[in-house]
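name: query_chain
kind: protein
chains: 1
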Amino acid sequence: MRKFILSILILSIIFLTCSGLCSSAAAQSRWAVNEIELAFESGLITNNTAKNLASRITREQFCELVVKLYEKLSGTTANANGSAFKDTDNPEITKAYNLGIVSGVSPEEFAPRAFITRQEICVMIVRTIDKSIIGADLNNYRVNHFVDGNKVSPWASAAVNYAFDHGFIIGVAANTIAPLDYCTCEQAIIIIYRVFESCISETSINNESDSAFISQRYNTVNEGNASGIFSLGKHNWYYATSSGERDIYIEGVFSAMFQEFARIFGYDTMTHKLIMVYNSTEAAYPMTAPYNELILIRLSQEKTSYWAQMIFQLSHEMTHYAYFSFFPEANQDNFESLGKTRWNEEIVCEAMALYMLKYMSENWCSCVLSSINTSFDASIRRYLENEYSKADTSAYPLKSVGDTITINEFHRRFNETASERYEHATERNYLFNLFVSVDSSTIGEILSMYRYFNSEFNCIDYDLWIANATNTDFIEKVSAIQPRFR
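structure:
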């Protein structure tokens, strides 16, 4: 029954238009489905809101959602005693009223079927966080100068800025917040899920000892000073800055990409170990480094405002992080000897970097940074085209198609992969084209690679993998990235 309901939700969203979130129904459906799925799995959807996801959400329906959110975050059941209004007997409204999250339109009336505006949703969200989490810092936000800021009511201004700054809501156009617009049920569900994920993450390691530990590791590796450590809004994901200030560019790019990574590889895989991201303006290249207690991702950007480059770098390293789920014992002393094949894994990571550039160009409207630059999708496409064109297919054709090579020759290439990436650029492009030709859920099978690692030859036994694969055709095509041996 549970699977049937989830299928109904997904099928419904495919045919819906997410007004105000994205202009392309084809692009936004893919994005919306994933967060709706996760909201369902988290127990944040009610029957009343699931009936017609495309319809405008009412005050009654949103009360049901925020009560679900409150009870999940606080771990307590809200009090439904009393009957505050004459025009409704819904206990969820009573709960929200008793908590101080909502009030009536008059002393005796609630207007349960009236629609709720975006600014009213922001106010109720902030009140829910305040009631759910002890010590929540509701003053931690930047004042945003929206084009239509004069339309935000004074009583909602702080909540609107807080919700926008934390990525719970996004603008409907460049620096435009549309505070008086209504939301659909699916949009409201996604907002509730984002709040849930953010709050769960921030409370999972929000103590002085853990913060000091991350800071110490950052300082050891980066030889700097982690003046600020911030949650990336997902369990186990953090980033550090030497400035002590939040980086909305890292937050925005990561948030937009994470959902697709979770969809492909699974949420548990993408949160399997504590991880910290940081940017080094002096580093020659990005990297992912495992330690006993956490994994570090280092970006190497001159400026984090170079969003396309960040997508390219961060998605590559996030794929390495996913592969480390197979090696929970990995650290700086042993990870080189754990049976990891640099050739195959690097090609997968580079292909995923191209895939995410394409994904982000097609789904840019769902990224919070689109409110700063609505047309940046074109820049992402140009970056993708430039990277893709670097492959010299005439000089370096697909190696599995040409002559066979010796295992020693393969090992030479294995050891020189980092410095001679152009040698497998054709394989990277080939795999990227394969990824975009299949459903994103199919790509996830690529993570099973190390189950078929041949330790004697330091390569992947594709024959064994194909024999055991769920999608044999897909893995058979993947096998073309590894040279054939003689």
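note: The chain has three domains: 2-201, 207-334, 354-481.
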